Amino acid sequence: MSNNNIPSKELIKSNYESYSDYFAEIMANIVHILQSEIKLMAQPTYKYRVKSFNSYYKKVLRLKSKELSESVKMIPLTDMLGIRMICAFLEDINLGLEQIKNIFEIKEVEVKGAEKKFSEFGYESIHVLIKIPESCKPELTGKYEGLTPISEDTVCEIQIRTILQDAWAEVEHELIYKTEFNPFDIPLRRKLASLNASLTLADITFQEIRDYQKKLQKEIEDRRKSFYLMADDLLDEKSEKAEQKPASRVTPFVQGTIDDLLLHAIHEHNQGNLEEAVETYTKILEAVGPNEKNIIAVIRKHRGMAYFSMNKFDEALNDFNVSLEFDPKAYRTYYYIGIVYSIKKNYETAIENFTKSLELNQFQAHTHFRRATAYYEIQEYEKSMSDLNSAINLGMEQSECKSLQEKLVKKFGLNM
């Protein structure tokens, strides 16, 4: 190739930089779509950049020198427009990728670093090439007037990484790609490999902890729903509900810890193995110190729910009251106490506890409904109707409220 065929670097730079704001606006528009459409439990953060001219020029010279010699038009590169979608957990990477596939037209998906051996220091990330939507391209007017429309082949690269993968990529870039790294420096390679392994293990551990928390939360939520069903059964004589049992679930992955014992206890509780559940709750209480207020409050509350399911209402009340001593703002515990007193037909005390629960959190449909029922029993019909309306407004099923509603209508009709 003769020198006469090589266009001026300054001319290429001027042309490239004239698109800089245009490209930045395109990426800002794509990021806005991602922020609006991607729905994960922990929302990702985003970084984006237009490839620097020097990096662009070196790559174009290396890969597309023929095109460069023929024209000074904008030559698209796959990584010219780059967005990083940075996720909290490993599972979010695949979840995010599937959602991106549903939002954009995908040109290519590549897992970078997957080919490296464990002893090497490259770190994985997923690179997705998307076609730039027409809606993300600004009009070529105003400050963009005179620009040639970009090629249909121009893509935007979205890199999907965890927080730790992104941190590794930033440091790796500074240590290796910006310096004269000697591949024969064995001690340095070993240190980098060790660091890579530590970060990979940390990502895996974070994901395992999250999986564990989700399992525990699912068990607790099922325990709470089961309590509501049993309360309905005891208070409303809906015996068919008492036969419903939750499906079998997975066992915990951490063995021999208090968290593991709690998950085991709640799992047995949900399966109806109440004696086993109470025994395990008791073991936890024996293992924790007197200053572990949060743990004592939680375990006493759950053991109280187990006693409740065994119709041991005095034992349940004792556990609920002790739980409140350690956590006086536990609004659900006041609700549970109110349920027990309702079963004992001590409606005034039940109302006191329902009221304390609602003072802490007024947005509880079940608590409004149960206080409405208690008010009805002591012939406070207007208060009962007010609570019933609040329960319905908060999403209580009409079918669950129908019986009380009909009774109140009848009472008001008799008073007319």
In short:
This protein has 416 residues and is α+β, with helices and mostly antiparallel strands. The protein is 62% helix and 8% strand. The longest helix is centred in the middle third of the chain and has 51 residues, at 186-236.
What do you see in this structure?
With 416 residues, this protein is an alpha+beta fold. 62% of the residues lie in helices and 8% in strands. The chain is built from 17 helices and 5 strands. The protein has a 5-stranded mixed beta sheet with strand order 1-2-5-4-3. Helix 7 (186-236) runs parallel beside helix 9 (258-270), helix 9 runs antiparallel to helix 10 (274-287) and helix 15 (365-377) runs antiparallel to helix 16. It starts with 8 loop residues before the first helix and ends with a helix.
Can you give keywords for this protein?
8% strand; 5-stranded mixed β-sheet; 416 residues; 62% helix; alpha+beta; 17 helices; elongated
Number of strand segments: 5
How large a portion of the residues is in β-strands, by DSSP E? 5-15%
Rg, Å, rounded: 32 Å
Euclidean distance between termini CA atoms: 103 Å
Please bin the fraction of helical residues.
55-70%
Low-pLDDT residue intervals, each spanning 5 or more residues: 238-255
